[in-house]
Design goal:
- This protein is α/β, with parallel strands linked by helices and 212 residues long.
- The chain has a single domain, classed as 3-Layer(aba) Sandwich (Rossmann fold), CATH 3.40.50.
- The protein has a seven-stranded mixed beta sheet with strand order 3-2-1-4-5-7-6, with helices on both faces.
- Helix 1 runs parallel beside helix 2 and helix 4 packs parallel to helix 5.
- The radius of gyration is 17 Å and the shape is globular.
- It binds S-adenosylmethionine.
- The site of S-adenosylmethionine has 23 residues, from helix 2 and helix 4.
């Protein structure tokens, strides 16, 4: 189900759900950096929960060294203090409403939305992305949704998830083609230089599939 979302369009939400569902074939957990109120996180939680329930019903013996019969977890991250300061890469006449402190919600509000929806509460971490280390992350990531709006936030997110991505795993960054948030494209394009990946742009999303 695509939860009502004022940050991501319905078409984009469906694309995110499809991409996340395909990533279930890959070993690793799911992460979202920049969860805000948790609208996309609720969709991802449903994908993960459906998969895990199915696994409980069908799995017999665990297969050694294979991720295919492991339950997936969802990890979500946010400052819960809203957006940080912009860098010069983020400046745009179209993006005046994106200011430091905008989009602030509390961790408790997000947790309560999962409880209300009857979904398992994900691992929720409150931090600025540049404070996070690999200790705060899953060991392996199959699917990463990056929605931090700004140059520094996307750059920090990419640096965090890159070494943890499984081969065949997917990174989806939001606002790639959003002229109001030019720092996102700048950070992603810088990161893409020299990388062995496959990319696809859909609306304002860029999907990056890791090849090795
Ligand atoms: C556009 S909202 C995310 C929307 C959400 N993904 C959804 O689909 O509903 C961006 C979020 O990223 C968070 N954020 C941006 N930069 C951050 C940073 N550097 N560290 C931590 N949180 C950050 C903001 O607090 C905000 O909640």
């Amino acid at each position: 189900m695509a939860w009502k979302n004022d940050q991501v369009s319905l078409k984009e939400t469906e694309y995110i759900i499809d991409s996340a569902t395909s990533a279930l074939e890959i070993e690793g957990d799911f992460v979202e950096l920049g969860c805000y109120r948790g609208d996309t996180s609720l969709c991802l939680a449903e994908v993960v929960e459906k998969y895990n329930k199915n696994l409980q019903n069908t799995s017999d013996e665990p297969v050694e060294n294979s991720g295919e019969n492991l339950a997936r977890k969802l990890w979500i991250y946010d400052s819960f203090e809203g957006l940080p300061e912009k860098n010069r890469e983020d400046e745009s006449v179209l993006g005046k409403e994106f200011v430091s402190g905008a989009l602030g919600v509390t961790k408790r509000e997000v947790k309560e939305r999962f409880l209300k929806a009857g979904l398992k509460v994900p691992i929720i971490k409150k931090a600025w992305f540049n404070e996070l280390t690999s200790d705060d992350m899953p060991e392996k990531i199959a699917f990463a949704f990056l929605d931090g709006d700004f140059y520094g936030s996307i750059k920090d997110s990419l640096n965090l998830v890159t070494p943890l991505m499984t081969s065949g795993g997917v990174i989806l960054a939001h606002d790639y083609n959003n002229l109001a948030l030019p720092g996102v494209k700048k950070a992603v394009d810088e990161w893409l230089t020299g990388k062995n990946v496959k990319t696809e742009v859909f609306e304002t999303l860029i999907k990056i599939t890791i090849k090795n």
